[in-house]
Design goal:
The complex is a heterodimer of chains A (291) and B (263). Chain A is mostly helical. Chain A has a single domain, classed as MetI-like (MetI-like fold, Orthogonal Bundle). In chain A, strands 1-2 form a two-stranded antiparallel ribbon. Chain B is an all-alpha fold and 263 residues long. Chain B contains eleven helices and no strands. In chain B, helix 4 crosses helix 6, helix 7 crosses helix 8 and helix 8 runs antiparallel to helix 11. The longest helix of chain B is centred in the first third of the chain and has 35 residues. The C terminus of chain B is likely disordered. The chains are: A mainly alpha (291), B mainly alpha (263).
Chain lengths: 291, 263
Amino acid sequence: MKYTPSRSSLLLAPALAWLTALMVVPCALVLALAFFRRGTYGGIEYTFTLENFGLVFDPLYAGIFLNSARIAGTATLIAVIIGYAAAYAIAAAPRRLQPVLLFFAVLPFWSNYLIRTYAWIVLLNREGLVTQLLRWFGYTGEPPSMLYTEGAVIAGLVYNYLPFVILACYAPLSRLNPELAEASRDLGASAVTTFRRVILPLTVPGIAAGAVFVFVLSIGNFVTPALLGGGRFQMIGNLVYDQFLTANDWPFGAALAMALIAIMLLVLMAQALLADRAAGRAAEAGGDADG
Amino acid sequence: MTQSFARSLGMRTILILVFAFLYIPIAVLVALSFNAGGLPTAWSGFSLKWYASLAGNSAILSAALNTLIVALVSTAIATLLGTLLAIGIEMRRQYGKGLEALIFAPMIIPDIVLAIALLSFFSMLNVTMGLHTIILAHVVFNLAFVCSVVRARLKSFDWSIVEASADLGASALTTFRRVTLPVIAPAVIAGALLAFTLSVDEFIIAFFTAGAGRASTTLPMQIYAMIRFGITPEINALATIVMAVSITALTLSQRLNRGVIGQ
């Protein structure tokens, strides 16, 4: 009795049915919802319209999109810089220590997101640890207002997603052939040039994967802006939340969600493109090393 | 020599700073949960009283029970379906990109999108929402994670031993039980632990699919409500317990399945 395609279909069927019924169909439903009109009393009127997508580009909402992109972009940039440095340092540590360091770098990522965000409220509130530290250093003025600022939102996003960047950047860094860097140095390149021309290009896929992850999760986030921004910083996620739970305009909420998915797909495509180009470069570098 | 010394000093500084950044916020929270005075401003002695007060908080206890029910049931379903899915895919050797995308989708779709999609779906079908709808929803992403952990294990699986078992007359079920399962068991358990942790911690999808009323409030929903209310010493204690549970489950999972989760 050999395993046959029909047999494997039998194994796939229950999970695929589940995913179809509870992911594909609901997402298709949201896509459809986006083309309907909002009823007078908040229900859904089943007439076709493109108004909801038009509203997405209304200056008010387009502004929130740009705002979200800026916050997510800043968080991504900071997370990538810190995460890459951390991954580089882990990859440079003695071999037997590396798995341990990596494990502890990723561990916080697996604890509750709300709790990790709440920890920043504890740190940043007016009488929080940061204020206490400032006092301890002799600061006597008004406690600085750090919570409910854009900076707090960005700090929360960086903190929450940093472990993933470390993980994503570590993979290509640990696989890096040390002979390549040595060859570059032997040929007279400075440490900076070696990094910029040899190490960085070969580790772009890791950076791209980490960056995409932070950006996508940040731009759709509604918990961090709600808790650390104190509701003062609307991001797309908050807007979607409002349409479904308070404003009761589901068609517009659906259109916003689709815009979010569109941004995500664009970013993923850009990443795939970058990864392809880097793969080409890596193949070249590998060929050179052999030759 | 000096250059490599400076380099290793630099690397160490980076590691210390990054680990401080990652762990200080959590450490402060844990320390404050044992602070007798309960204030974040002054240490007034070690105490377990905030943990004791949690035990007397019926809202938190019922939320914890709900979370446990959701996590256990959704993990059980996801582990079964996800494992079968992983075996089915790896056995096939060739499969379309569409299938791959379908399985990866729950891991990358923003939570808020899946949350509103399920809310629209359930309310359009007039399904009364509650713990059961949260379970249905949690299986969607748990399934994807279990599947990816088990698949990683199956990559190095030698399918010829399955054929050998069949040639020797074992039924498909016996082959699975006696040949395939023992090989993938650590990955299955690791996947289940991962799913359990994800479900215990999941907030957004639960929030949208729990329906009206407090009866189906889960622990993260309770924590969210408490945080919005302000800082209380009780949240610190609750946060410490929840983190201890997830971190224990994750560490176990990692031990069972070295490295797979990290990939």
